């Protein structure tokens, strides 16, 4: 409805008060501060990077601690996405600041515990991998690095192929002198390798090794200095000890869960200080004073001026907007329309002096969304669900809250159009009545208007009509802006001429045979309406042809520009046809819902049939409402962004970003 008027302030104050003034402005959160326009070679800035980095790291450490607590000691009281920030008092912040060293030590200990947990988990993985590697060697009764005794040689290793004790003995003792003194044992076989152990006299060691090499013998890549079975037991004991230590460390981390709220306050405190030092590092200052500029809502400028002058002796002056300077935009709408401000902001904010279309857009947005989803059952779920969330989580983030409010209104609209079209979870009432109660008396829930599935062309005509109204309103807003700017010629030539031209064409189209063949309706106007239609068309056409290029002195170019603009009527036709998506998505919702109900009723009316119907009904309609609600959201946005805004809207506004507390977890309730 309106854009909040902004006031630019210039502040000069004693340097000793700069931190206090910045903290005051930060706590107020109503001023967008900047320093780029202040240029003077005698003014310097302070390097605050070190302090800023220190506070950022502190905030990050608290964020990390809170994340760890959410893993090891989940907070069941939090409501996730919808919970919003906890409300605290300034006294709570002061208490945390006084005890910040203790809390900082807590973060160090918790992070140290988490690091040790990671190390223990890594050791467990290492132990388990080693146990797995020792599984094939469990039958070995000596350490794997054993090479023999004074009179014997031991060969412990692997072969690439399967072997038996006999084949291994034969291969190892090949060409040895009698008596043959060789002991060969296959320890395990599998995974494309065979683990073996061979013992022989030292006099035969060279020949035995040569024989073993011939069949692919290789020493193991990793060996243990003890019997594998004993090492395995030791590793299992180490795993048990590591797991016990992990439990102790987790318990230690969980012991800090009671301070979770204090850690949130501390995290936001350090994050806020980092933001203050970030700004502090850009402030121009002399030896005794510093300078700031900023934007505040005009109705709050006196409050800021009084606060700074009385408490800190600052000099505060109201400044005029410089040339090419863009004022930040704050939208001000009623409770219904403010829910759609996020939709407008996603496209782009309006500049000061231009029209804020949020109120008008929000009306069409809610209507079109409801027409696209168009099922009373889905609408009830949507608006009741949003109402419950808004009631249960009153402190949810502002953006999330507006989105929930928007879907609340869209849910009401969906319910309304569902009743008008006679849709309640598709045709669920009729299917249930027929399948489980033997009802054959026709439709139970009758539409208050008409049923789109049986008369789609009628709905198409209405969708086109709504589209024309939507586009006409957009053109009207452009005309209002022209009158506001004092450009009467533009209003007549660019607005009224197009209204006349388009209205005349529509009045000539409606009684035509073409329209009758498409709509199935024959509409006849009195003779004077036909004359009026032709007059409007010709008058609008002439004005557009002559005046569209009125800024050109060459009449040939001027007429060419006018002719090109007249060709733009095809764009209007394309825009009007775009509103057929209201029909398409509305029909899709109803058809898919009916198919789901039909699938659920295929199992008959018994107990088993009822159970299967409920399962298919729940799953199918959950999927349907999700897909079609998303489709309605996307295509409703498109109708606003492309068709509606394309007729008048010029974005370019800059969002208002106040210098405020960088609160992620808590909201400080200031005492007034």
Q: How far apart, in Å, are the first and last alpha carbons? A: 30 Å
Count of alpha and pi helical runs: 22
Instruction: Average the pLDDT over all residues and give the rounded result.
Output: 92
Q: Compute the gyration radius: what is it?
A: 40 Å
For this entry, give a set of tags:
3-stranded antiparallel sheet, 14 strands, 3 domains, Alpha-Beta Plaits, alpha+beta, 672 residues, 22 helices
Structure notes:
This protein folds into three domains: 164 residues, no CATH class; 77 residues, Alpha-Beta Plaits (2-Layer Sandwich), CATH 3.30.70; 310 residues, no CATH class. Helix content is 58%, strand content 11%. A four-stranded antiparallel sheet has the order 3-8-2-9, with helices on one face. A hairpin with a 2-residue loop joins strand 6 and strand 7. The longest helix has 38 residues.
